[in-house]
Design brief:
The protein is α+β, with helices and mostly antiparallel strands. The protein folds into two domains: 125 residues, Beta Complex (Dna Repair Protein Xrcc4, Chain: A, domain 1), CATH 2.170.210; 164 residues, no CATH class. 41% of the residues lie in helices and 18% in strands. It contains eight helices and seven strands; from the N terminus they run αββββααβββααααα. A seven-stranded antiparallel β-sheet has the order 1-2-3-4-7-6-5. Helix 2 packs across helix 3 and helix 4 crosses helix 6. The longest helix has 42 residues. The protein is elongated. It starts with a helix and ends in a 16-residue tail after the last helix.
């Protein structure tokens, strides 16, 4: 039987999803089991949480559905079938959601059907504790920012190397077969400034409901899994990894696990950027000029360079 702590551990590794209840937009995550459910939801101004075990679900289902007689597991299964598609971006036409909220309480009303009879449910979410907000939002977001910054620096370094390789081809007499494919040498400072001036206003105006795109959900899951692993004791030899931490299929974000793990060391890596404008070691203008073209592996010109 999965206890309260196990449910909360499973919730940690669930990604955030954008959901709409009536005219209100939220980000939410949930975990349903035969022993109950946990729900965490936020409008980015407040965060609410509910943990309901078998006793709570059984009592509330009798109060709201006097005509329905079913085992508690049937109600939990129905709630899972209603909420999980919603968290995946799908919604059933036969189900309606509405909500009432204050700074300390959020009630989500659900109206659907079960076995051909009307089925009603209310999620009663109270203000989440600061430790839960930190665990599910603040710490993962900070580590996601670090991982994305490191990824940006590696990509910038790769572009500089590609520019050096292209320049070597040109000096060897290669030419583009299609002029429209020509690109200017990558300048990281110019790129970052243009991004801040042009793209950032669009992203900040996208609305709270788009806080987690699909790729960021995968990265969040990878970061949260590292958080859970760091917070638990090492299993004894021969013990299997807890099911809530085991990945059924690899995520693209797991390639960044090593970057996230670096934060657990006593000293931070010396090459981590100090700000958005910081440049990777080989990408500063002076160092670009010093990059020896002779070290770029020469290849036979082909493809675009005929």
């Amino acid at each position: 039987m999965e206890g309260s702590g196990d449910l909360d551990s499973s919730l940690l590794t669930q990604p955030w999803a954008s959901v709409c209840f009536g005219e209100s937009t939220f980000i939410a995550k949930a975990c349903f089991r035969d022993t109950g459910y946990v729900l965490l939801i936020s409008d980015l101004s407040s965060v609410w949480y509910e943990h309901a075990d078998i006793d709570v679900v059984g009592k509330r289902s009798k109060e709201l559905n006097k005509r329905l007689t079913a085992h508690v597991s049937s109600f939990l299964n129905r709630l899972s079938n209603l909420m999980c598609p919603l968290l995946e971006g799908r919604k059933s036409d036969a189900t309606s959601f509405s909500c009432q909220q204050t700074s300390s309480k959020l009630t989500i009303h659900v109206k659907s059907d079960l076995s051909g009879l009307p089925f009603y449910w209310d999620f009663h979410c109270l203000a989440a504790a600061m430790e839960m907000i930190s665990c599910h939002l603040l710490r993962p977001l900070i580590r996601m920012s670090l991982a994305l910054q490191c990824q940006l620096q590696e990509l910038a370094s790769l572009l500089v190397q590609k520019d050096a390789e292209i320049e070597d081809y040109r000096e060897s007499g290669a030419a583009l077969s299609r002029g429209r494919l020509r690109t200017e040498p990558f300048q990281e400072e110019l790129f970052l400034q243009k991004f801040v001036d042009e793209r950032l206003p669009q992203l900040c105006g996208a609305g709270d409901g788009r806080a987690f795109a699909d790729t960021l959900q995968q990265l969040y899951t990878a970061v949260a899994r590292q958080e859970a692993r760091a917070g638990q004791k090492r299993p004894h030899p021969g013990e299997a990894e807890p099911p809530e931490l085991a990945s059924s299929h690899p995520l693209p974000g797991e390639a960044l696990d090593s970057l996230v793990t670096q934060q657990e060391k006593d000293e931070p890596p010396s090459d981590l950027p100090q700000s958005l404008g910081a440049t990777a070691t080989p990408s500063s203008p002076a160092q670009r000029a010093q990059l020896p073209v002779s070290k770029v592996k020469r290849k036979k010109a082909k493809g675009l360079f005929g």
